[in-house]
Design a protein that fits this description.
Elements: H1 7-15, H2 31-44, E1 50-59, E2 65-76, E3 79-84, E4 87-91, E5 95-100, E6 105-110, H3 128-131, E7 132-142, E8 145-154, E9 161-168, E10 173-180, E11 185-194, E12 215-218
Parallel strand pairs: 6-12
Antiparallel strand pairs: 1-2, 1-11, 2-3, 3-4, 4-5, 5-6, 7-8, 8-9, 9-10, 10-11
Length: 220
C-alpha cells in the first residue's frame, strides 16, 4: 500500500493542531486583530456551504517556486472535499477517503472524534484562539485590493514555522502565507468563492462504482 498525502493536506497539518497555551511573559494578542478574526469566523459559520477555487504555492528561501497545486474545495457543515490534480480527498463528517488517481487506490480512514482532526473549515474559523498570538499590521494592497494583514505567531515554538500572515478581504481570508524556519514559504489563496449553492451530500462520499478497477484499502 502506498501512502498518499497532497501538498494541500500537508499545508493543513503544518498550520493546525497546535493546541498550546501562551506561556507567561510571552505577551498578549492585539484586541483589534481579534475583532477582525472573530468577524471572519462568525461570517464563515453563517454559510450553509462553500465552494471555492484555490492555489497553493510553495517557494524556497530564495523565492524560487518549488511546487504549485490548484484545485477546488467544497465544504458543508463538517463535510469537505478537496479536488486537486491527481488526487481527491472526501470527508462525510465520519470517514475520510483519499483517492490517488495514478495508482487507482483509495484509502479509507475513520475520523476519531476525540482527535484534533485537520479540516479545511478550521482555516476559516476560530483556530487562532489557543494556538497563536496575533496582531493587526494594518491595510496592504494585494492584487489591486486593499486587505487587512494580520500576523500570527505560533505559541508552540517547536513547530517548523515561525510566522503566518493572513490577508482578509470583507471578513474572508483571501490569502494565507506560512513562513517555515527553513525559509520555505507556503501561500494558499482562494478565489471564485460561492456560498449560495446547494451542494449534495453525495459530493462528500467516494463512490467506488464510479471508478472501475480501483483498489480499496479500508483502515477503519
Amino acid at each position: 500500500m502506498k501512502k498518499v498525502y497532497s501538498s494541500l493536506f500537508f499545508f493543513f497539518a503544518l498550520f493546525l493542531g497546535l493546541q498550546a497555551q501562551p506561556p507567561k511573559g510571552m505577551g498578549a494578542s492585539d484586541p483589534d486583530a481579534k475583532k477582525v478574526l472573530d468577524a471572519v469566523s462568525a461570517k464563515f459559520k453563517t454559510y450553509k456551504s462553500v465552494q471555492a477555487k484555490f492555489l497553493l504555492k510553495i517557494e524556497n528561501a530564495s523565492g524560487k517556486n518549488i511546487g504549485t497545486k490548484t484545485g477546488t474545495v467544497y465544504m458543508k457543515g463538517t463535510k469537505y472535499r478537496i479536488s486537486v490534480t491527481g488526487q481527491e480527498i472526501y470527508c462525510d463528517g465520519s470517514n475520510v477517503w483519499t483517492y490517488d488517481k495514478a495508482s487507482k487506490e483509495v484509502t479509507i480512514n475513520k475520523i476519531d472524534p476525540s482527535a484534533n482532526s485537520i479540516t479545511p473549515q478550521k482555516l476559516f474559523t476560530n483556530f487562532y484562539d489557543k494556538d497563536f498570538l496575533y496582531k493587526l499590521n494594518g491595510n496592504v494592497s494585494m492584487n489591486g485590493k486593499s486587505m487587512q494583514e494580520i500576523e500570527l505567531t505560533p505559541i508552540d515554538k517547536t513547530k517548523p514555522f515561525h510566522k503566518v500572515l493572513l490577508y482578509i478581504d470583507k471578513s474572508f481570508i483571501s490569502t494565507t502565507k506560512i513562513f517555515e524556519k527553513t525559509g520555505n514559504r507556503y501561500t494558499y489563496s482562494t478565489s471564485g468563492m460561492n456560498t449560495n449553492g446547494n451542494i449534495p451530500d453525495a459530493t462528500f462520499v467516494f463512490d467506488a462504482k464510479q471508478y472501475p478497477g480501483v483498489e480499496v484499502v479500508d483502515l477503519r
